[in-house]
Amino acid sequence: MAEDMIVKELDDVVVRFSGDSGDGMQLAGNMFSNISATEGNDISTFPDYPADIRAPQGTLTGVSGFQVHIGSGKVYTPGDKCDVLVAMNPAALKTQYKFCNPQSVIIIDTDSFTKRDLEKAQFVLENPFSELGIKNEVVEAAITTMCKESLKDSGLDNKTIMRTKNMFALGLVCWLFHRDIHVGEKILREKFAKKPEIAEANVKVLYDGYHFGENTHASVSISYTVPSKEQKKKGLYMDINGNKATAYGLIAAAEKAGLELYLGSYPITPATDILHELAKHKSLGVKTVQCEDEIAGCASAVGAAFAGALAVTTTSGPGICLKSEAMNLAVITELPLVIVDVQRGGPSTGLPTKSEQTDLLQVLYGRNGESPMPVIAASSPTDCFDAAFMACKIALEHMTPVVLLTDAYIANGSAAWHLPDLNEYPSICPPYVKPEMAGTWTPFQRDPKTGVRYWAIPGTEGFMHRIGGLEKSNETGAISTDPENHHRMVQLRAEKVARIADSLPDLQVEGDLDADLLIVGFGGTYGHLHSAMDTLRKQGKKAALAHFRFINPLPRNTEAVLRRYPKIVVAEQNMGQLAGYLRMKIEGIHLYQFNQVKGQPFVVQELVDAFTKILEE
Q1: Is residue 1 over pLDDT 50?
Q2: What does pTM read for this prediction?
């Protein structure tokens, strides 16, 4: 036990909770991020869990992790390495130690490090720290024993008592970083409001973990504090993940447009939580239908769009493959539809719980025929709200299906979100038919300025019509196989999407306007690329970042921006899809590439090393 505890102030810290899938590491990590956000810290989280429903206890494949980065100022990523690792068993230690830095503190449950536990984790020696060459400071706590002792008179069975171990570990971490333990108590009482005996047990163990650290100093000589130094915008904040933010953005757009929101979906990891969240909001006029398969989910949404709803369908990469026929029905009927693609690792079933950016070319071109479709990519958990809102606005105002790309990393990761004022968001004005058009209107009559066809809601007197998957006459709306008409309709649909660029904001460049290297990316890699740019600039190098939200159509100034810099590197979690697309759109441009397809977020230091090498060429 340390005689004199030193309290060290840090600008930021990274904590990684790890254990069996049933050890509650996701809950512990989420609670720690919520507690920290309440104290004014900025946060970025990364849940990292296996695809197994429940791997055998104590095995290497069953380890679930949750990493949270808290900072006194802005944090962009969950961090490359952790400062504290909670390893609830030997398997967690073995698989997660690679995320530690040399100064990391490791917290273990000594009760879970028996000979049998070591064998399950495929250790050869009885000392796992020696076998792994670990020289870090280790906090050894008999967590299982202390939980049993704490709740021996609670009347709970042993299995339930064992489920509280995560709260002991959380309490110990809260002590180590001087977190307000009362916030954790409040979260638990709200979470288990319908099970008060479970709430009391978890609260008691949470405080026991905190007091264990307080009374023993947990065998460490230093505890830490991460004060909030950055003045945040006044207002209400919440810890939100990308899927929930997407759901809220869809609801907000429906409210702004004065429409009911319809979701036709089929469950698929990692997009299902959007369906779950929207299903909670029937009071806001939200209708959710869990269909029998992917194409049915999308086709039902196309029907809802025809009926006058804000129609949405949600999925991941494999579901996009299956929905493509129905997505194309929305293209040819020119109906507003939002398709949310929460990208995951592929091909095929691939890595269902991991993150990639490998669906870009699929959503741009993965349909039969000439079928242009706007594509938007969200850049962070909180940005999912704005990106979803903008996807709805484009779909409704331009009468087109729109793809919103997110990915598992930002969909499951969370950040502190300032609750927005919808009065500050732009209006959404669909191009409805006008009464004076009655009698002369045809289904593909268009606004001459935008090329957008007018929307006639079924039941509107004087506007009875049919649309469908067969090509139609531009003039009458009747089925047509005329070659010239088909060519004209293909052109009109393409021109309508291209004109959307007129209403898009310019591509923004962050960093040095006279940079020697422009970093280019899209989607959920924003935080890592921004951090890499910041590091390069601190090293005295001139670097800038251009991150695409709007991919089809590209912002009007895209070519001008890219031709301004002597060296450009496109960094993406695929084998070069955005780079290839930009080369196709901008003739003669030279691009360096940084590509990784690991199912894991970028490591900032690897980006810095690669970008530095390009600068030195």
Answers
A1: no
A2: 0.93
